[in-house]
Amino acid sequence: MKRLFIITILFCLSALTLNAQTKTAVSQKNAYINIQTILESLPEYNEATKTLDALSEEYKKKIDDEYAKIETLYNNYQRQKNSLSATQRTQRENTIINKEREVKKLQESYFGEEGIVQKKSEELLNPIRKKVQDAIDKVAKKGNYLFIFDIATIQGVVYKNPLADLSNEVIKELKK
Predict the structure, then answer these.
(1) Of 111, 137, 162, 169, whose Cβ has the fewest other Cβ atoms within 10 Å?
(2) Per-residue b/e over 61-76, b at no fewer than 16 CB within 10 Å?
(3) What are 55-68's pLDDT values in tens digits?
């Protein structure tokens, strides 16, 4: 009899615990943001983007100028090819190939993963990203949100309720 009583009490306690956990999970909310909208509302982001665009354009022009020089070398070579000796042709071909390699290395140094533009991007944008993430964290904790999704990066969203959009709340938090 005691054993049945203890089993019944344990069963009731486990049922109460499960019920409490279910209510906690149900009471937590989900929402979404549009990170692009948030970023575009920040003057420092827009300024950083302009700086990066100008830097990229400057380096792109340098690369284009170098390729134009290579093209000129190649066209001159093609015009003079028949009048050159085999040694001269090989020498000019090697010059053109070496110039192309140099330009590709230069392009990598500007635009590669460890390039100047990437480093400048990290330098300018990482503090902004951290600031935005901190604001999102504050809004999430204040509203007791379980998940906040970024609809700017998620593909396949077929429905979104505007009432669940926290983008403006994050923007307000950033302006504090």
Answers:
(1) 162
(2) eeeeebeeebeeeeee
(3) 999 999 999 999 99
